[in-house]
Amino acid sequence: MADPTTYRPAPGSIPVEPGVYRFSDARGRVIYVGKAKSLRSRLSSYFQDLSALHPRTFAMVTTAAKVEWTVVRTEVEALQLEYSWIKEFDPRFNVRYRDDKSYPYLAVTLNEEFPRAMVMRGAKKRGVRYFGPYAHAWAIRESLDQLLRVFPVRSCSKGVFNRSKQIGRPCLLGYIGKCSAPCVGRVDADEHRDIADDLVAFLEGKTAGYIRRLEKEMKGAAAELDFERAARLRDDIAALDRAMEANAVVLGDGTDADVVALAEDALEVAVQVFYVRGGRVRGQRGWVADKSDDVPAGELVERFLLQLYGELDGEVAVPREVLVPALPADAGEAAALTELLTELRGGRVDIRVPQRGDKRALLQTVAANAKQSLNLHKTKRASDLTTRSRALQEVQEALELDEPPLRIECYDISNLAGTEVVASMVVFEDGLPRKSEYRKFTVRGEQGGTDDVASIREVLIRRFRRLRESHQADQDEAAADGTETAEAGIAAPELRPGIDPETGRPRKFAYAPGLVVVDGGQPQVNAARQAMDEAGVSDIPVVGLAKRLEEVWPPDSDHPIILPRTSEGLYLLQRVRDEAHRFAITFHRQRRSTSMVDSLLDGVPGLGPARRKALMKEFGSLKRLRAATMEQIAEVPGFGPATAQAVVDALAERPAVPAVNTATGEILDP
C-alpha cells in the first residue's frame, strides 16, 4: 500500500484555476480522472487524514503513485477534457455504467433506392432514420408487423430482394399484403419511397392527421359501396391503434426528451433512462454501477450524462430536453454541462428538473423503475449460493472468526426526538433473511437513558438474558429426564436444545448467533460488547457497521476494519443492517400510530383500550382511520353507529399534523 505523502505536491504548487487531474499508479497507468473548479481545493482533499476518506477514495490514493493536472480556461473545457481522458484511459476507479448488450433500434434505410424497415444494432449510419432504442428486439418486430399492414414498405434483406427480382415472384410478405413488392414492379421507386416517407412521418409522431385521412377514406369508400376497401381501411386503422398502444403517448406536446432517474444506496447506484420521441416512450435502458464515493445526486447525474452522451460512440443521440432528478449544486457546473451537451447536439439542450405535470409524473415512473432495478440486482446477487458462501467466508476472514457466521443477528434503534424508542432484531441464516426469527423491542430506559447507546445496551442485555434462560431451561429438563446426562451437562437424547417440549416449537431467543451486528460506530459496538459480557455471552463476536463510510468497527478498537467496496462480505453486512433499519422504522411507525390514536380519541365516550386496539387492528394506521367513513368504522366488531360517529367527530376536530424526524427532516406520515 502506497503512502500518499510520498507523492503529495508541494504546498502552493497546485494552481487555483479550473482544470482536470489524473492519478496514476506505480506502472504509469491512469487509475482515476477528475475535474475541479479549483484544482488546489479539490486535490488537497485527497491528502487529508486517510481515516476520514471514503473507502473507495482511500483505496485509490493508496494505489496511486503520482498525480498530475492540466489547467484549462473554463469549466466547459474541463468537462470536455475529463470525459476525453476517461474514454482514452478507462480508469478503474471512475464510475463505469455498463450493460451487457447493444440496444436495438427500428431503422428505415432512406439511403437506399428501395428503403427497408429493419431492426438494427451497433453504430449509426448516415442516411438511415433510427427510432428507439427499444429494450427488446421483439418489441420492434411486433410494432413493425402491425405497421407493415398499413405501410407495406420493403423489410427483406438484399439477397431475398434480388432473388425475388430474378424469379419474378415476391416473397410471402408480398402475397399477404405486408410488402408493396417493388422487387417485381408492383410499385416503382418513387411510389415505394412515398410509402417509406409516410412510415417515417408516422414514427415521428405525425399520427393524428394520417389516421383522420384513413377514416375519411374509409367513410368515402363505404358511401361508394366499396365495402371491401372500407373494411381494409378499417383494419388498417385498428392496426395503427394497436401499434400506438405499444408506445403510449406520455407527453402531450410531442417533445423529444430523455428522462433520467437514480436509485442508490451506500454501495451502488442504479440508473434508468426512458427515451421519449414525439411524445412517446420509444425505449428504456438501465445500468447498475458501484459508487466511487459519497457525492450528491446532482454530481451522479452529471457523471452519468457525460458517459451516456460523450462516451458511447454516438450510440445515443442528445435530445432537445433532458429531464433529471437533480442538477449539480454548483450553478457553473450545471451551465457547463448544458453548454457541452448543446455542442454535442449541435443545437440547444435544456437540462432541468420537472416540478409538476406529465413530465414530473413520468420522472416518478422512471424513478420507480430504477428502484425496482436496484432491488432486483440485489435479489439476484443475494440468491446465488456461491456468492453467499463467498460473503460468509470474507466476513470470517475480515473479522478473524473461527468459523463462518452462519447465523447473523443485527440490531437497530428507532425513535422520534427521544420518544417512542423501539428496537429491532433481524436474523440472517446462511446469508438469507429468516423472518420467523425477527423480534421487536420496546425500550424502557432501564440503562438510565433512551439514547442509541443506552438503548443498544438495554436491548442486548434483555436478548442474551433470554438466551441464558433458554439454555438453563434445557439443562433443567435434561436433569429431570436423566441424571447421568444432566450431570454431564448434556441434554437427554430425546430433548433438542431450544425446543419447548410442551409445544414442540423453538423457544424465543433460543439460538445463539455466530455474529452480532449493531447499527452504529465505536460507541454503539462498545455498549453492545459490555451488555453481552454482563449477560454472560462474552464468546459471541460483535461488530458495528457505521452508515457514513460503511466502516466495520470491532469493540474496543480505535481503528475500523475497511472491507473493499466490491466485497461480498461488506454487501452482506450492509443488507443485514438495512433490513434491521427497515424493520425498526416499521415498528416505530406502528407504535406512533397507536399512541396518536390513543391521544386523539382520549375522552370519547365508550371508547376504551380494547376498542382503540380493534380500530388499529382493522385500519392499520391513523392515516387510514382518518380516511374511513362512519359506516366503515361501524363495521368494526364492538362498534355501533353512535360510537363510530363519535370517532369521526373526534378526528375531525383535531387536524392531522405530520411528525418530522428532527435528525433527518423526514416527514413521518403514519
Oligomer: single chain
User: Which residues sit in consecutive blocks of at least 5 with pLDDT less than 50?
Assistant: 483-497, 657-670
- From the N-terminal CA to the C-terminal CA, the straight-line distance is 50 Å
The CATH C-level name of the largest domain is: Alpha Beta
Named CATH topology of the largest domain: Nucleotidyltransferase, domain 5
Number of helices: 21
Q: Write down the Rg.
A: 33 Å
Helix percent band = 40-55%
> For the report, how would you describe the main beta sheet?
7 strands, mixed
Q: What is the β-strand count? A: 20
Mean pLDDT: 78
Question: How much strand content do the residues show?
Answer: 15-25%
How many individual domains?
Answer: 5
The CATH superfamily of the largest domain is UvrC, RNAse H endonuclease domain
Judging by the overall fold, what is the CATH architecture of the largest domain?
2-Layer Sandwich
Structural class estimated from helices and strands = alpha+beta
Approximate shape? globular
Quick structural summary:
The chain has 670 residues and is an alpha+beta fold. It has 21 helices and 20 strands.
Topology overview:
Elements (H helix, E strand, L loop, with lengths): L18 E7 L4 E7 L2 H8 L8 H9 E8 L3 H15 L15 E5 L7 E4 L7 E4 L5 H14 L7 H10 L4 H4 L13 H15 L4 H16 L3 H19 L11 E8 L3 E10 L2 E11 L6 H14 L10 E3 L7 H15 L4 E3 L4 H27 L1 H15 L7 E10 L2 E11 L2 E2 L5 E4 L9 H30 L1 H5 L27 E5 L2 H13 L7 E5 L4 E3 L14 H33 L8 H11 L2 H6 L2 H5 L6 H13 L5 E2 L6 E2 L2
Parallel strand pairs: 7-10, 10-11, 12-16, 16-17
Antiparallel strand pairs: 1-2, 1-3, 4-5, 4-6, 7-8, 8-9, 12-13, 13-14, 13-15, 17-18, 19-20
Helix pairs in contact: 3-11, 4-9, 8-9, 10-11, 13-17, 14-16, 17-18
InterPro entries: GIY-YIG_endonuc (IPR000305), GIY-YIG_endonuc_sf (IPR035901), GIY-YIG_UvrC_Cho (IPR047296), Hlx-hairpin-Hlx_DNA-bd_motif (IPR003583), RuvA_2-like (IPR010994), UVR_dom (IPR001943), UVR_dom_sf (IPR036876), UvrABC_protein_C (IPR050066)
Function: The UvrABC repair system catalyzes the recognition and processing of DNA lesions. UvrC both incises the 5' and 3' sides of the lesion. The N-terminal half is responsible for the 3' incision and the C-terminal half is responsible for the 5' incision.
Family: Belongs to the UvrC family.
